[in-house]
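Q: What would this complex look like in 3D?
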Amino acid sequence: MMADTLNDSNVAIFLAQRGTEEPEFTEPKQAVEDAGASVDVLGTETGEVETVNSDLEPGGSYEIEKTFSEVSSDDYDGLVVPGGTVGADTLRLDDDAVSFIREFAEATKPMGVICHGPWTLVEADVVEGRTLTSYPSLETDIRNAGGEWVDEEVVVDEGMVTSRNPDDLPAFCEKVIEEIDEGQH
Amino acid sequence: MMADTLNDSNVAIFLAQRGTEEPEFTEPKQAVEDAGASVDVLGTETGEVETVNSDLEPGGSYEIEKTFSEVSSDDYDGLVVPGGTVGADTLRLDDDAVSFIREFAEATKPMGVICHGPWTLVEADVVEGRTLTSYPSLETDIRNAGGEWVDEEVVVDEGMVTSRNPDDLPAFCEKVIEEIDEGQH
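A: Here is my prediction, written as structure tokens for the whole assembly.
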């Protein structure tokens, strides 16, 4: 991967007020930055929040730089939604976060959504007819929302990149960069 | 409530390996015991596990007395499924736990399911045509599973008692005892 692949790209990464899975936030963020992208950390309220490891252990502290309500999805070329059971469950309750995702999906702009993150896709009602993966507990919710659920390390469907858990991060990050580099589908 | 209302009742309460919401486990357990019921704590593996408070703070330590795989739902007159985001997400991945719930629902035997607990009802595919409540983040998953979701302190539908969060516990516990006292519908 060239270091300047994403030089002209603005990427949004979501960070929940609590419960975001540490490596699913830090690793994709680092990967797209290393590829040259400019990254904004978006959340419900600006300020420092804490992540978790394995859902229940303390993670690190990171800054939410802009709120969902103050940005437009039009200003971004790529989107990353991390998991964490509590984190994804929290994000899906924010209407502005869900609208952002819906706009991205409807425009078939590149996004990476991992682990429990796909609950936000269910909430945005953009799963119908799409093939995706997730943490296994979401399989039924995704099928009930009209999606085709598969158990694979990484799945790409029209710019929508999904993976199952932190072990899938290397494959996930690679595909996310590839799709952002390709641009809107 | 008479102290001996549930004297002849055996009640099962589920406890996840991790992430069960402390008061949603302890309070219904105490309430049905105070009403005279005999209670078994069921889980995936026997032994001590820890609960959480507000999903991410440490709770207490409690013993799982019997495993889902070693019991039969026929031996119980009532069932309680606590929430906790991680706890309910963990329980829905245990096929024996899900079968237990399905058998209870199909027999219209009394059960109380609170907060994120109703994900287990979605997993058991017993939500279709039923009216229920839950933590608000589950609304879409419940509607997609064919349920009618309402925002009320406590909902009773053919013996299925549901509530939204720990604040609803007094109303929840009262209805759970009433329904177990009434018996199978």
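A: To summarize the key features: The CA atoms of residues 121 and 127 of chain A lie 6 Å apart. The radius of gyration of chain A is 14 Å.
Q: Very helpful, thank you.
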